Amino acid sequence: MALKDLEIVIVSIGVKNADINELKTVSIQSQFTHYTDQFDDLPSVEPQIVSILKNIPKESRIPKTEILDSAGIKKRDIVFLLDGSDDSRNGLLAIREFIRRMAEDLDIDQDIARVAVIQYSEDALPHFLLNTYSSKRAVIYAINGLTAKGGRNLNTGAALKYVRDHVFTTASGSRHQLGVPQLLIFMTGGGSSDDVAGPAEDLKNFGVLSIAIGIKNAVEAELQSIAFSPRFLFNLPVFGELLHIQPDILSFIKSKLEIEPPTIIVELDTAQRDIVFILDGSDDTRDAFKQMCQFVQRVVDKLNIGLSGDRVSLVQYSREPQVHFYLNTHATKQEVLNSIENLQHQGGSPLNTGRALDYTKKNIFIASSGSRLLDGVPQILVLVTGGRSQDDVRAPAAALKQDQIVPLSIGNQNADVIQLQAISYTPGHALTVPQFDDLQTIEQKLLSYVKRVPRQPKRLPPTTTGGSLRHTGAALQYVKDNLFTAAAGSRHLEGVPQFLILLSSGRSNDDIRGPVKALKDTGVISLKSVKRDVAFLIDGSDDSKIGFEAIRSFIQRVVESLNVEENLDRVAVVQYSRDPTANFYLSSYSTKKEVLNSIRSMRHKSGRPLNTGAALLFIQENIFTPSSGSRRREGVPQILYLFSGGRSGDDVRTISQNLRENNIKVFTIGTRNADTLELQTMSSTPAYAFSVPDFTSINSIAQRVASVLISGDEIPEQFPTPEGQALDAGRNIVFLIDGSDDASDRFTAIREFVASLAETFDVGQEKDQIAVVQFSNTAATSFNLSTYSSSSEVADAVRNLKPKGGRPQYIGQALQFVKDNIFTPRVGSQQMDTVSQNLVLVAGGRSRDSPHGPANALKSMGVAIFAIGSRLTDPIEMEAISSQTDYAMAVYDFHDLNNVRQSLLTKLMGVRQKGDTKVDAEGDRKRRDVVFLLDGSDGTKNGFPAMKEFVQRMVEKLEVAENRDRISVVQYSRDPEAHFYLNTYTTKEEVLDSVRGLRHKGGRPLYTGAALQYVRDNVFTASSGSRRLEAVPQILVLLSGGRSFDSVEAAASSLKELGVLTFGIGSRGSDSRELQRISYDPNYALSVSDFSELPNVQEQLLASVQAVSIPITPTTPTVTAEYVAPRKDVVFLLDGSDGTRNSFPAMRDFVQRVVEQFNIEPNRDRVSVVQYSRDAEVHFYLNSYTTKEDVLDRVRGLRHKGGRPLYTGAALQYVRDNVFTASSGSRRLEGVPQVLILLNGGRSFDSVDAAASSLKELGVLTFGIGSRGSDSRELQKISYDPNYALSVSDFSELPNVQEQLLASVQAVAMPITPTTPTLTADDAIPRKDVVFLLDGSDGTRNIFPAMREFVQRVVEQFNIEANRDRVSVVQYSRDAEVNFYLNTYSTKGEILNTVRGLRHRGGRPLKTGAALQYVRDSVFTASAGSRKQEGVPQILILLSGGRSSDNIDAPASALKESGILIFGIGTRNSSREVLRIANDPTYAQSINEFSDLPSVQQQFISSLNNALEEVKPTTPTVAGKTDSHTSLGFELFRVLSSAEF
User: Fold this and answer.
1) pLDDT top residue among 833 and 1118
2) CA distance linking residue 827 with residue 772, whole number of Å
3) H-helix or E-strand spanning residue 526
4) Cα–Cα distances in Å, from 1260 out to 1131, 1285, 1310, 1347?
5) Among 6, 237, 251, 1131, which has the highest number of CB atoms less than 10 A from its own CB?
6) Strand partners for 737
């Protein structure tokens, strides 16, 4: 200190073991401190030392600020930050007395000394702030009332950040900007659970003088990092010692303080850095990828990760690069390490390193991705590659270096050293290792290079001078960070308005939304040099004549607010009724006066009907075009105001979508006669749709509409309802997120996206409410709408979510789950009729079930659905799920979710609530579900209007309501199309409006059988609104004008078996016998000579329909035998794993040659190809192609899939569930033979037994062909008969078995009768499937470890192997959750490890009945690993600690009827209930507490074994063994003979 007092400039350099904190204390300023790893590295700091010495002014005194004012030296802002944890509770009295004495001796006044007190443990809690009290008396009174906060852990870093961000601020009373000294007195009794160094350094940089006081268990190193200097550090043995140091601290506080201005710390070992790791993810690095990830983890572990410290991003690449996380994705080291831990190898070829470098420069080293390039923070790229790049690397590398980005490269022996040197900052920055196993040998050297990269001067964002790119986003971010700051002269902290005037000549090449929001959040008002092209489209029909004057006046006022000039705003006006007419174009006038004169002289157009769709098309093609004055191509905003007084007579959907796609912003203003939904459809977003009772009251919204145009801002949160009333901003928002295995590596990005959205809403009991549901093959509630009451609680809960796991994705089932379990008052979805209901779906893949019915059901409830998909989802499916087209959004990858954040928020803010819908709840009234199936083929074009009117008249006679009659309409020709489902509309008027709007479908030929099957599978289902399971009659009315080109037998029988009452009405072109076979009874088949005569049979049909008041009993009708030409459905399932890469061309050629022998036509043979490795992928379905040439072209283009391990069982199950289905083209229900040909090159890593059995039960004839790497016994089990398994030494020998296979497949002419699976010798071994169902409710929290240990001990008694015992564990409380399925693990070690790691689930109430139903429906199934169909005993072991809040009898009975043995153990609270659930009283055990489980363990196991000995499993018949030639040559011929080729 003496040297510094003499104004001697001290620069310190540390080497190797030097103490960095000591060096900082020695240096005149911390930025004059440097460090190197070795003395040899000293030359690397030479430039910085020279720079410092050159820049020291002649008067070398470091400037300091003396605080001298009218109050002398007494002005102080003092913050006490106190340890409020449980461990410091006993010291509260001493702490309180210490603060009280300090306050007594200070001149506390708002103009002199101000005091704040903050307590912290896990989080910080303000007791009072600097501006809370203005007198000493009030402060002391508040101190006397101080009580301990409580809490176990100490997050000191978070607390320091809290006082920096929330207490030392103008809003909280800090006078930092006025030069008043800022003091922090910090007291703690223990070590921190989080990082302290970064936040402590931030406080010092901010100019806060921190005094650190440690008591008892405080950590010395943490205190050193917090204290402003060593003399401000105190470490005391007990709290009582506080009073001894109080005078010294008070003396210092009262002394004359000299405060150094904040400085930017630039130390080489703790500096900020932005580091991007680029990892080679090509096929060649598959085996070494884990070592590469571990290397990155070790490097990251040595960095100072934090948003104000080091930031890290990771990119993986092969042919294309893929970002795993950006520089601003993760804020903590642990998050980064966890994300790296979850990385999956990308795979692919060739290796395009140049493309990856270019991608990283343009997409990662930019401000919107978290780069601090403009702030001078060192930008470092670390490339780890295992091969030679196939593209140019020199140009991208040079571009990186030119932008001051430092590339460092690491390669193994396969990498090209010359390329590495060309990429690296200098050739010496290229490092090599023999193998990636040796990466640790160069770890220190890499870190040394990283630490030596110097900081750069701050720079302006890139300009457009002489270039083609315009980065407005980066420029806005720069302005916010560098100009709107106190250091740059901004007075925003003093309340002075801040304005930004942006002059831009075009669209930005980077994202501007984040910087714009940040500027607005800071209070900056943006004034743009705005150009706009504004068009007004006015309803000039007869119905708007009275309101025309009001519309004209409104437009005048809007135009008066514009800056109409040639190079600023331009205006056009168009009127329309039947057709549109332009009053003037955008280029017609160049002055405001001319525009206003023309508007004043406008005459009403008149005419009818109102064709709004045609008018919008006119606007697109004739107004917003360059020839008419539009400047759209120059980036000038295009704005349309549409005034509509009625419903359009033509379609508006397509043109509205086109306008949105062309970035034309559309605002709609409608009256009470307009269709609100239509207005919202035409608007750019629903928020831009305004309603008034009539146009004469348009003045009520004039200011609001005009303000949007002038400001350019989005619509605010409050929106007028159709009645003109304001809508409360309160809303219910449910996030339905993909938690499947397929999305696990992207779950962090999904989680952060939802959390950041949650933080923008005002969550509270009477405000916004948020719920989260995860889905995969099932759905599970993470938390309900009423669970949390603040935004921070929701965000914290979301950030703690773990992915649910499971596959595949069933979106339809998940939507139904949300409808039934979330959007209900019982779980907190309050005010369904007044508060807007919103569902945000985030899906990472295509749904394996139909989501249409559940989505429509939600929409009919008034729920607004937003769907966000990635590159793996089906965009058409997303649009169908969404409430309207622009509610469907897509990102390439979930790491890009922030790209749609603002758009989603805008739409969410604009959703209106659903109107009050009254539902007749009378239970004794008749209810019916009626589906009209209309022939829409070319042959009925002239008769279609009569069919449509017939449906209208029928509907008018029915009592349509949610709880009465429901209606659906489907039209078909070659394929069927649902116009609306049974749950789409809830009022008669809605149904009639939709029927009136029906358009003839057209198409040929007529496939009535396929249409009947479609309505059975997709319309008469619960998800589509069918109430068949509620005993509501199901009625189908078919109107057909011709004979079907496919068989109707199977589908008609299937409908009758379902209990559907089918009426068939045909015209002269129909086949009367066919109609009789379709109809439920031949007498229900009606006939007219022409559809114009339909009124003649209307009363007869209506009487029959209205007479139905009870459901039809399902029957098994007799099917008339009829000869059809030989047909077959053939699916090829190809092993596409890494092991078959070289032999895949031979497999592809084999498929081609086999297909060439088939007779592929629409009603003959059909073919599908599926490839699999870890998962399965359909190349095309059975109904994708109808000609042989199409199929062969597709087969020739097949590419090898790649991947490992090989899951043949999952692939077999996949083709069963997704390919051998009617929706995918399977004609199994029509009696067409189903054939599966498997080409397999290795042993499966999962069990094939259940899936193979399931296929056999379905009647699928499976042929298995394996190579030398296959398991012959496995192939025999998979094949329909063991003799149907063929083998080749290599797939190049496939031609040797081709004729043998063809002889069998070509003989197929009749379907295979489903059989029970053939047993192998292994089936004689005792086996069992055991499911443990554990009570995980709040009541079992303390005794859950005892339950877990009991499961472990029981499992240890089992013989766990793939073909022996299987185990599953399920926990439940309010709902059930699978910890793992029966087919998840195949070894005892894996199961025991998972059981040991089980966490208590928690929740209430206890619903044992629902849990029993869940395990029956979701766990004891073939897809979950159950072998019930193979005769393996099924056992459920229930451990229940309380009484169920729902009914247990029905689910328990259902389990018993399914043949499942139920054992139960209950406590004193549940033993009687468990007794009722168990199959037999001897299967139920009773104990006082679960801690007593060991006392009944042996007795329980004995009961289990005794029961198993008594069980007689259903043993499938063992097929007799025959000679293979006999089997293939005779048996197959007998079963499958007479095909035509």
Assistant:
1) 833
2) 12
3) strand 524-528
4) 10, 14, 12, 43
5) 1131
6) 774, 842
Query: What one-letter code names the amino acid at 475?
Result: A
Residue with tokens 């990082």: 195
Q: Which of 284, 308, 309, 280 is nearest to 295 (CA)?
A: 280
Q: Is 1030 buried (19+), middle (13-18) or exposed (0-12) by CB count in 10 A?
A: exposed
Cis ω before 808 (30° cut-off from 0):
yes
Q: Which residue has the higher pLDDT, 1377 or 513?
A: 1377
Q: Which amino acid would we find at residue 964?
A: R
DSSP letters for 94-141:
HHHHHHHHHHHHS-BBTTSEEEEEEEESSSEEEEE-TTT--BHHHHHH
1407 neighbors 1447 (Cβ within 8 angstroms): no
625 Cβ contact partners less than 8 Å away, ≥ 6 residues apart: none
Q: How far is CA 1274 from CA 1156, 1240, 1247, in A?
A: 29, 10, 9
Residue 248: which residues within 8 A CB-CB, separation 6 or more? none
Strand extents, DSSP E, 870-928: 888-890
For tokens 């146009």, what's the residue? 695
What is d(CA 931, CA 695) in angstroms, rounded to the nearest whole number? 40
pLDDT of residue 30: 59
Kindly write down the DSSP assignment for every residue of 1242-1253, as one continuous string. Answer: S--SS--HHHHH
Question: Computed from CA positions of residues 946, 948, 951, 953, in that sequence, does the dihedral angle turn out positive or negative?
Answer: negative
SS3 of residue 547 by DSSP: coil
Peptide bond into 875 cis (omega under 30): no
Residues 1188 and 1194: their CA atoms lie apart, in Å, by 10
Tell me the C-alpha distance between 528 and 712, whole Å: 9
Of 526-530, 843-847, 1190-1194, 1351-1355, the poorest mean pLDDT is in: 526-530
* Secondary structure string (H, E, C) spanning 1142-1211: CCHHHHHHHHHHHHHCCCECCCCEEEEEEEECCCEEEEECCCCCCCHHHHHHHHHCCCCCCCCCCCHHHH
Length of the chain in terms of residues written: 1541
Predicted confidence (pLDDT) per residue in 514-562, tens digit: 677 677 767 776 555 568 899 999 999 988 888 898 899 889 888 887 8
Q: Is the dihedral of CA 244, 245, 246, 247 positive or negative?
A: positive
Q: pLDDT for 709-754, tens place per residue?
A: 544 443 332 222 333 333 344 788 999 999 988 887 788 889 999 9
Is pLDDT larger for residue 30 or for residue 681?
681
Cα–Cα distance for residue pair 380/1309, rounded to 1 Å: 67
CB 323, CB 315: distance < 8 Å: yes
Which residue type, as a one-letter code, is found at position 433?
Answer: V
What is the average pLDDT value for the chain, to the nearest integer? 82
CA angle 1125, 1128, 1134 (to 5 degrees): 160
CA 1335, 1339, 1340 angle in degrees (round to 5)? 50
* CA 341/CA 185 separation, integer angstroms: 40
Q: What is the largest CA-CA distance in the chain?
A: 115
- Tell me how crowded residue 404 is: count the other CB atoms within 10 A of its CB: 17
| pTM of the predicted protein model | 0.27
Q: Tell me whether strands 1176-1180 and 1166-1172 are parallel, antiparallel or unpaired.
A: antiparallel
In terms of DSSP bridges, do strands 1329-1335 and 1285-1287 run parallel, antiparallel, or are they unpaired? Answer: unpaired
pLDDT band at 72 (very low <50, low <70, confident <90, very high): very low
Measured distance between the N- and C-terminal CA atoms of the chain, rounded to whole angstroms:
101
Q: Collapsing DSSP states into helix, strand and coil, what is residue 821?
A: helix
DSSP tag of 833: T
CA distance 808 to 1214: 9
3-state SS, residue 54:
helix
Lowest mean pLDDT among 416-430, 486-500, 820-834, 1350-1364: 820-834
- Nearest C-alpha neighbor of 1038 from the set 1097, 984, 991, 1121: 1097
Question: What percent of the chain lies above the pLDDT cut of 90?
Answer: 30
CA distances (Å), origin 623, targets 582, 600, 618: 9, 21, 7
